[in-house]
Specification:
Structural class: mainly alpha
Helix content: over 70%
Mean pLDDT: 83
Number of domains: 1
Shape: globular
Order of helices and strands: HHHHHHHHH
Distance between the termini: 65 Å
Low-confidence stretches: none
Radius of gyration: 19 Å
Strand content: under 5%
Largest sheet: none
Number of helices: 9
């Protein structure tokens, strides 16, 4: 009886981890779209925040609805076989999605690295996402590896939220639609850009 209760508590805990991660990604996505809206799209670089916003919202939905797992099962049904060393086809799909996100970020390197307060948590999150995907791809599916991967993924989601929150806090108020200002009031003030960062933004 005690064992069954412990298993139930464990299941609830990991479900909460999954939900919190999805909420963090969804919130970060909304902040990315809000940043793009606040900037009024004056520079080509701000398009990154719109694309990142849409991508993060999709990942949040995927996290709760297991879309890439379903796609992996569909590919398996069509006869596709995952390469040797890859646990599941859906892990490969997730790796491709992660690579696409990395390439998108690197394509807007100047925009992303213009503010250290944003770049540091963002690239830390990317590194942790890469580590989590690597565990998903290669580590044993039994034991503690999946739990470690879930924990790393949660930290990455929260860091992403920090990065997008800081970037939104630095966007100009005059570009915001009437519905957006309450978001800014909920966020702590972001560190002001240094002189070097201001020069890079010009």
């Amino acid at each position: 009886m005690l064992y069954l209760r412990a298993k139930k508590v464990e299941s609830i805990f990991w479900l909460a981890v999954d939900v919190v991660g999805a909420l963090a990604l969804f919130s970060a996505g909304i902040l990315g779209l809000a940043t793009w809206r606040a900037e009024g799209a004056p520079r080509n670089g701000t398009l990154y925040w719109a694309l990142a916003g849409f991508g993060l919202v999709y990942l949040a939905i995927d996290e709760r609805l297991s879309l890439h797992e379903r796609a992996g099962r569909w590919l398996n049904d069509t006869g596709f076989t995952a390469p040797a060393g890859v646990n599941h086809t859906d892990d490969l799909i997730l790796a491709v999605m992660g690579l696409a996100g990395l390439l998108l970020t690197l394509s807007w390197w100047r925009e992303v690295t213009a503010r250290h307060a944003v770049a540091f948590p963002l690239f830390a999150a990317l590194g942790l996402f890469a580590l989590a995907i690597g565990i998903d791809l290669r580590a044993p599916v039994d034991g503690w590896a999946p739990r470690i991967e879930e924990g790393i993924e949660l930290v990455a989601c929260l860091l992403t939220l920090v990065a997008l929150g800081r970037r939104f806090a630095l966007s100009p108020s005059e570009g915001l639609a009437p519905a957006w200002p309450w978001l800014r009031r909920m966020l702590p003030p972001a560190p002001a850009p240094s002189a070097i960062e201001q020069e890079r933004l010009q």
